[in-house]
């Protein structure tokens, strides 16, 4: 069907979510069921996901050098050798002039440790510009996808045509501490000595939603303010974050399975799936695969990880160097997305293409003209561009084939 014959329908983010730059709340996907008796361990489940990718070559690993992609690549290399399958292809992107994205030393360490022989390094400059040619092509095919940095994997997906792209999505979330009821779970399992304030936490955990909301309101607000939002929109976003915390199960294992229902999860998986399919590739995310999540939920039980390093050591100490397992910090790729096309668009933007009932256009314009605009506003960049050059489309829509 030609482009002009395509219809448009509402897509992915609500107007409030688009303005905020985040998929909020719980969607229509049911939580994951408990892992049945006799299910494989978390590490075994992780390997099963990767084995599936290896059996549909080329198995291309999006390899930044961070802990998540390093674990995937190292396990994939080991499983391929064990099973006599074609080895994974590591693909790394190097960004000229973006110092915060420099990961060469970490990449080389993992490549050597995992004995990876097929390593592609793509030298990029402005290819990932938020409203550059690649982004515009993706928007014309799929609409404005969330998150906007979905296109980070596009140059890598192009090398996975006919095979499988493997990403580290989900690793930051599932392998890190920071779940809502961590301390209370440790108190209930007698891992830490209770304090007087824990009685209030217990009341919130077992009480009705209204009481739980009041207890959680005593904690720091998990959402950073978005200065470009109108006050009523900012309040609505904060309320949505509160609703999410109120809904999170207390038991950590249940919380992991519940996380599968979040719009954050479903929307990201949907976007990455569209991206890969557009290049003729399948896509898998071992850290966000139901097999791995249910296994992790069963193994952890009530208590979440004490640290990211603890999680990594417990699962991957046999395949990764110690420096990678316990490293602190990670690369930032924001500079790769703020290319000349985006800078020019921001400079000349007339305020159209965003919903002024949610967005303070003057504040947003000022933010976009700073050296490092808030990454949460990237979807608005793309929606404003789409509305300017594709007037038949509404902000945040997808073309239906």
Describe the structure.
Residues 57-374 form the Asparagine synthetase domain. The structure is a single chain. With 401 residues, the chain is of the alpha/beta class. It has 2 domains: 1-178 and 221-401, Rossmann fold; 180-216, no CATH class. 47% of the residues lie in helices and 8% in strands. The protein has 20 helices and 7 strands. A 5-stranded parallel β-sheet has the order 4-3-2-5-6. The longest helix has 17 residues, at 67-83. The protein is globular and about 60 Å long.
Itemize the secondary structure elements and their pairings.
Blueprint: E1 7-10, H1 15-20, H2 42-54, E2 59-62, H3 67-83, E3 89-95, H4 104-114, E4 119-124, H5 133-142, H6 154-157, E5 164-166, H7 171-174, H8 182-188, H9 198-206, H10 209-216, H11 231-247, H12 252-259, H13 263-278, E6 282-284, H14 290-300, H15 308-316, H16 322-325, H17 334-337, H18 340-348, H19 361-368, H20 378-389, E7 397-400
Parallel strand pairs: 2-3, 2-5, 3-4, 5-6
Antiparallel strand pairs: 1-7
Helix pairs in contact: 2-3, 2-14, 3-4, 9-10, 10-11, 12-14
What is the count of distinct domains?
2
Oligomeric state of this protein: single chain
Low-confidence stretches are 1-10, 393-401
Can you give the mean pLDDT?
Answer: 92
Q: Give me the CATH fold name of the largest domain.
A: Rossmann fold
CATH class of the largest domain: Alpha Beta
Proportion of residues in helical segments: 40-55%
Protein name: Asparagine synthase (Glutamine-hydrolysing)
InterPro entries: Asn_synthase, Rossmann-like_a/b/a_fold
GO molecular function, one term: asparagine synthase (glutamine-hydrolyzing) activity
Domain Asparagine synthetase: 57-374
């Amino acid at each position: 069907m030609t482009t002009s014959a395509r219809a448009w329908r509402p897509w992915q983010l609500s107007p409030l979510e688009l303005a905020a730059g985040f998929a909020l709340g719980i969607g229509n996907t049911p939580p994951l069921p408990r892992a049945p008796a006799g299910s494989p361990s978390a590490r075994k489940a992780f390997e099963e996901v990767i084995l599936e990718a290896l059996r549909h070559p080329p198995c291309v690993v999006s390899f930044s050098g961070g802990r998540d992609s390093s674990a995937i690549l190292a396990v994939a290399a080991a499983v391929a050798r064990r099973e006599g399958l074609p080895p994974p292809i590591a693909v790394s992107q190097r960004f000229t002039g973006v110092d915060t994205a420099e990961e060469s030393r970490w990449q080389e360490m993992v490549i050597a440790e995992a004995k990876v022989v097929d390593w592609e390094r793509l030298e990029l400059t402005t290819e990932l510009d938020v409203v550059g040619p690649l982004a515009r092509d993706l928007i014309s095919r799929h609409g404005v996808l969330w998150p906007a940095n979905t296109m980070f994997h596009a140059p890598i997906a192009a090398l996975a045509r006919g095979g499988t792209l493997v990403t580290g999505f989900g690793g930051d979330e599932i392998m890190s501490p920071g779940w809502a009821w961590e301390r209370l779970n440790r108190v209930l399992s007698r891992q830490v000595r209770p304090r007087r304030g824990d009685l209030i936490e217990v009341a919130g955990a077992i009480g009705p939603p209204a009481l739980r909301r009041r207890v959680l309101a005593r904690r720091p607000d998990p959402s950073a303010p978005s200065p470009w939002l109108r006050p009523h929109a900012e309040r609505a976003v904060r309320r949505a974050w509160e609703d999410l915390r109120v809904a999170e199960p207390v038991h950590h294992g249940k919380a992991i399975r519940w996380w599968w229902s979040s719009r954050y999860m479903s929307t990201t998986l949907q976007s990455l799936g569209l991206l890969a399919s557009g290049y003729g590739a399948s896509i898998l995310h071992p850290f966000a695969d139901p097999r791995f999540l249910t296994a992790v939920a069963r193994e952890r039980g009530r208590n979440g990880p004490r640290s990211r390093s603890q999680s990594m050591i417990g699962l991957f100490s046999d395949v990764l160097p110690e420096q990678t397992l316990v490293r602190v910090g990670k690369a930032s790729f924001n500079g790769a997305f703020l290319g000349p096309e985006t800078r020019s668009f921001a400079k000349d933007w007339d305020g159209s293409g965003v919903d002024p009932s949610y967005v303070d256009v003057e504040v947003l314009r000022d933010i976009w003209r700073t050296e490092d605009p808030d990454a949460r506003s990237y979807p608005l960049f793309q929606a404003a561009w789409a509305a300017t050059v594709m007037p038949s489309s509404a902000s945040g829509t997808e073309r239906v084939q």
